[in-house]
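#structure-requests
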Amino acid sequence: MKTHIQVIKVEEILTIIPLLTKLNSKTPLSLLKERILEIAEISNYECIGLYLEGKLVGISGLWYSTRHYIGKTVEPDHVIIDESIRSQGLGKQFFNWIDHHVKNKGCEAIELNAYVNNPKSHKFYYNEGYNIYGFHFLKVLRDDKKFY
């Protein structure tokens, strides 16, 4: 199986929608597209694609920032590997590429959030050297108080 990992160009960012909707099924498609197009233009964001035989099978957004407690950091976001190819070592390959990519950009740490109802991802991140240091809290400010 031939794999290729690269930064997804801004003009190709909507190619992530089929994978993203597997992770984010609550957001209406039109709103999801609008948000992705807006995010893709932000200077501290890039999206990485994992391709298998030329087909996009994995994605991760990367948010860059500097934190007072750790320095230059990156947060992988909306990480997904197509379920049909999981447990074949591609996630490890993907994150090894991300580790090298962000280290070359001067990052000193990687921080990420994982949904509590996804224990397989927790095991994966533990195996990749991540530790739990806190909780992720979310407060919805919209009037409807819904998460989408």
